Amino acid sequence: MKPDIDLFGIFIPSLLIAALACYLVYRLLHAGLARTGLYRHVWHPALFDVALYFTVLGTVMLCLEQAAS
């Protein structure tokens, strides 16, 4: 995976682009899980949200790393 992406002379870290994409995926997952009522069974919803986001981010970064090699 390339560490930086050149966008019209501005270098943007690939982690930033992946983090923004993961945020959109996280929001969709959060809305779906909230609609199903899962958050009634979660002890600490904010901690669960952070763990969910980093799980999605880690999965995406792992997939990008595997695709690059």
UniProtKB/TrEMBL annotation:
InterPro entries: DUF1656. It comes from Pseudodonghicola xiamenensis. This is DUF1656 domain-containing protein. Keywords: Cell membrane, Membrane, Transmembrane, Transmembrane helix. The chain crosses the membrane at residues 7-26, 46-64. It comes from the Bacteria. PROSITE patterns: PROKAR_LIPOPROTEIN.
